[in-house]
Amino acid sequence: MKKQVLALVAITLALASCSQQPDHHADSGDVFTPIHSPANLERQTPDLSVDLRKTPLASLSADLRARLSTEKIVRVILPNGKAVTYANTDGHVVLDGDMILGHSDTAVKIIDGLARSGGTINGQGLSEFAAGRANWGKTIPYFWNNTTFTSSQVSVLNSAISLWNQQIGDAVKWQWNTTPYNKVQFVNGGSGACGSSYVGMIGGTQPLTIGCFNTGTVIHEMGHAAGLHHEHQRCDRDSYVTVGGTDTTNFGRLCTRYQYGNYDYDSIMNYGAPYAYAKTPAGPYQGNPANLGRGSKLSTGDMSALRAIYPNSGTTDPTDPTPPTGAVTYTGTLASGGSAVHPSGGFNWYGGTLKATLTGPSGADFDLYLMQKYSDGNWYTMAKSDSPSASEYIETSQTAGIYRWAVKSYSGSGSYTLNATK
């Protein structure tokens, strides 16, 4: 087997599973479907535990870095003693059951950010955005592949989207459109988890995964995509609910983002029992405490928060950021075992697909790597193509950051050409 010549550091953190619960009926006769809740991972024995108080992230061995991406349940103790527990699946970093923090191949960067922030997650009332600053326009473009959903599942998706648009479509409307560069793709999550989504727009095509097909679950994930965090993680939540679990990063309060209105027990963004329990309110609130985690549509509070961050109803959408176009060509000559990087200082990337084609000398074995510079000052491999030939190709989706291409001669020498799209 060809030995690896550059270290690959790709940590896959992902989806904490959830369970679908039966429908419940409120006194009014309305159907409230309990929103899925995160697996109580902190109560399970982890397959791997890493204590960053003893060994800093930058000093972890290659073996530990690799195991962080493969073990099913991983627990990381941050330098300040807070614990982060995650499950590995599906190639995304997901905390609190369904909020995607980034691609799995940027997990080291995400953990580094959590370590530096002391476990604070950038976190309707509770929103990612200040008033008027949501990063979608008037519409959120979406699509899905019909072959991946049954007709009954499509019916649930359409019903949820229709209900959203009836309730709040004048402020932010979901619209089927495969053309824009920035859009949401609904993905069938199977039976492994109820759902997951990024919070707000991240750039490019972003997944919104559904595994539990009921209207409440779909609208909950749509709320995340539109920019809403969990209601039960408001900074003032301790006056209204009791949240179980000792994992303060997964279940803790988010006091660094924007809070709108009073605590809303009716919010679609709440979890319910056994992860959050209503208690006698110790401050102003709205909704019915009995409805905690049982919503099937946007509440009045949810809609007020969305109107606050999407105030420009009736205006045109802002222009999508321009996707990467054009190409740059690099050339060079390597001796056997030599390497080169292009450009030497790296290039800034705002997120999206990067492509590169390497053509080396006949009979040689040249390899191609995409590397990213992290906050520790080191460069880590995010993608590679290392076939036993002189020609290599990489096409990969990456988040914003500083990147560069690396060319390595495993054997043979001569001139090469690297064509990169950025």
Number of H/I helices: 6
Helix content: 10-25%
Oligomer: single chain
What's the story with the biggest beta sheet? Answer: 7 strands, mixed
CATH architecture of the largest domain: 3-Layer(aba) Sandwich
Q: What count of structural domains?
A: 3
Task: Characterise the protein shown here.
The protein has 422 residues and is α/β, with parallel strands linked by helices. It has 3 domains: 48-130, no CATH class; 139-309, Collagenase (Catalytic Domain) (3-Layer(aba) Sandwich), CATH 3.40.390.10; 328-421, Mitogen Ypm (Jelly Rolls, Sandwich). 15% of the residues lie in helices and 33% in strands. The protein has 6 helices and 24 strands. The strands form 7 sheets. Strands 6-7-12-13-11-9-10 form a 7-stranded mixed beta sheet, with helices on one face. Strands 19-24-20-23-21-22 form a 6-stranded antiparallel beta sheet, with no helix packed on it. A 3-stranded mixed beta sheet has the order 3-4-5. A hairpin with a 5-residue loop joins strand 4 (73-77) and strand 5. Helix 3 packs across helix 4 (215-226). The two termini are 32 Å apart. The model is unreliable at 1-41, 121-127, 246-250 and 313-325 (pLDDT under 50). This is Peptidase M12A domain-containing protein. Keywords: Hydrolase, Metal-binding, Metalloprotease, Protease, Zinc. It comes from Deinococcus cavernae.
Keywords:
about 425 residues, alpha/beta, 3 domains, Jelly Rolls, 6 helices, single chain, globular, Collagenase (Catalytic Domain)
Short synopsis of the structure:
With 422 residues, the chain is α/β, with parallel strands linked by helices. The protein has helices spanning 62-68, 107-117, 151-168, 215-226, 248-251, 300-309, and strands spanning 24-25, 31-32, 48-51, 73-77, 83-87, 92-95, 99-103, 126-127, 139-144, 173-176, 183-188, 195-198, 205-210, 241-243, 258-259, 263-264, 276-278, 285-286, 327-334, 339-359, 365-373, 379-385, 391-411, 414-421. The protein has a 7-stranded mixed β-sheet with strand order 6-7-12-13-11-9-10, covered by helices on one side. Strands 19-24-20-23-21-22 form a 6-stranded antiparallel β-sheet, with no helix packed on it. The protein has a 3-stranded mixed β-sheet with strand order 3-4-5.
